[in-house]
Write a structure and sequence with these properties.
Elements lengths: L1 E8 L2 E8 L4 E9 L3 E9 L6 E7 L2 H12 L13 E8 L10 E2 L2 H9 L8 H14 L4 E6 L9 H4 L5 H7 L8 H15 L7 E7 L3 E7 L2 E5 L22 H9 L3 H10 L2 H6 L5 H9 L3 H25 L4 E5 H6 L1 H9 L10 H5 L6 E2 L8 E4 L4 H13 L1
Parallel strand pairs: 1-6, 6-8, 9-12, 12-14
Antiparallel strand pairs: 1-2, 2-3, 3-4, 4-5, 7-8, 9-10, 10-11, 13-14
Helix pairs in contact: 1-3, 10-11, 11-13
Length: 398
């Protein structure tokens, strides 16, 4: 079975085509700058040079058609006919309370996605555009929605509710939803396989640390708490996002700086975090280099970043009354040995003991970085959200 995985942004289409017989990637690519005359398609087939094409792509339907044309191209393609694509898995950011698992897309699902646009105004509209475009080009295929929020629907009410007037929840569904659910589910399952231990017997703290970052407490295979909230702004300090702050800061800054609410929202999402404190970048590599060259603002930014991760891990160990596995994933989590080291230095009370040599290894493989004596397994598990979407899609089709 061949499954196409689609992740649509407002002006982009990311895609991967999988052969689910062995879960191999047949092709991968990205359509950028949709809606302009300078659109670019990057198409990659394993063991071949990346193909880069400049083309005018005015909307997502045209973009999807060009993707399929490339997949079927006699020289650069990997399939002979669109009929070979049995199903399409669509990443959808927000499913609200409607979906606790992936679903085959029908008119009711489309309506529910549309009704949650207020909760994800930047993501759900382009996700719907991608569904429209793919269904138009692949009407024979089964189309499946895989929600970032679905994995977290197992949280208990005391974990997802905010201490606001309950009427706000009843009227507007203001609550914690959490994100990166597809990634947290994937790496938790992979950790279970790596250790050879049943997932339903493990207490896992999953640290998805990238430009956007979240931590999830996974108990017996289910999310019981997560650091992101109603939006992806809450929780950890991130590349450009503030994470948790005193909410009274917002009206204070509006008054003192004569800013609009939209400007403050932009400040918290795009100009805070590592970038805001260091004044250099939201990229951990650049901030780390500046710290090593003696920049004290960069040092402060990394100290704050690490401290918040340690605090959250500690809170989730308390929430689960113990921990068996702490895992790191995503860009920073997989590649920044210094951050993993600094975080684990503050967790020795729980029996965490990092192996410096294993932690320093540069590898794209799943691996243990704790010592044999460590009471907690510390793992690096590269995430693969696209493969998780393909697996969820395959399960529903079958």
């Amino acid at each position: 079975m061949k499954i196409l995985v689609i992740n649509c942004g407002s002006s982009s289409i990311k895609y991967q085509l999988f052969d689910m017989q062995d879960e191999s990637v047949l092709a991968t690519g990205l359509v950028e700058k949709i809606g302009t005359e300078s659109s670019i398609i990057k198409h990659q087939v394993p063991e071949k040079e990346e193909l880069v094409i400049a083309s005018e792509i005015l909307d997502h339907r045209v973009g999807m058609k060009k993707v399929l044309d490339l997949l079927m191209d006699p020289e650069d393609g990997v399939i002979k006919s669109a009929e070979e694509v049995a199903a399409v898995g669509h990443r959808v950011v927000h499913g609200g309370e409607n979906f606790s698992s992936s679903v085959v897309i029908d008119s009711n699902v489309r309506r529910a996605i549309r009704e949650t646009i207020d909760l994800a105004p930047l993501h759900n509209p382009p996700n719907l555009l991608g569904i429209d475009a793919a269904q138009a080009q692949l009407p024979h295929a089964v189309h499946v929605a895989v929600f970032d929020t679905a994995f977290h629907q197992t949280m208990p009410d005391y974990a997802y509710m905010y201490p606001l007037p309950y009427v706000l929840y009843r009227k507007y569904k203001i609550r914690r939803y959490g994100f990166h659910g597809t990634s947290h589910k994937y790496v938790s399952e992979q950790a279970s396989k790596f250790l050879g231990r049943p997932l339903d017997e493990l207490k896992i703290v999953s640290c998805h640390i990238g430009n956007g970052a979240s931590i999830t407490a996974v108990q017996n295979g289910k999310s019981v708490d997560t650091s992101m909230g109603m939006t992806p702004l809450e929780g950890l300090m991130m590349g450009t996002r503030s994470g948790d702050i005193d909410p009274a800061i917002v009206p204070f800054v509006i008054t003192k700086e004569d800013l609009t609410l939209a400007e403050v929202n932009s400040m918290m999402n795009k100009h805070s975090g590592l970038l805001g404190i260091s004044g250099i970048s939201g990229d951990m590599r650049e901030v780390t280099e500046a710290m090593e060259n003696g920049n004290d603002y960069a040092r402060l930014a990394i100290d704050m970043y690490v401290y918040k991760i340690k605090k959250t891990i500690g809170a989730y160990i308390a929430a689960m009354n113990g921990v068996d596995v702490i895992l790191f994933t995503a860009g920073v989590g997989e590649n920044a040995a210094l951050i993993r080291e600094r975080v684990c230095e503050g967790l020795t009370f729980f029996g965490v003991e990092l192996d410096p040599a294993l932690n320093a290894e540069r590898s794209k493989k799943e691996r243990r970085i704790s010592t044999q004596r460590s009471k907690v397994d510390v793992l690096v598990i590269p995430t693969n959200e696209e493969l998780m979407i393909a697996r969820e899609t395959q399960a529903l089709v079958q």
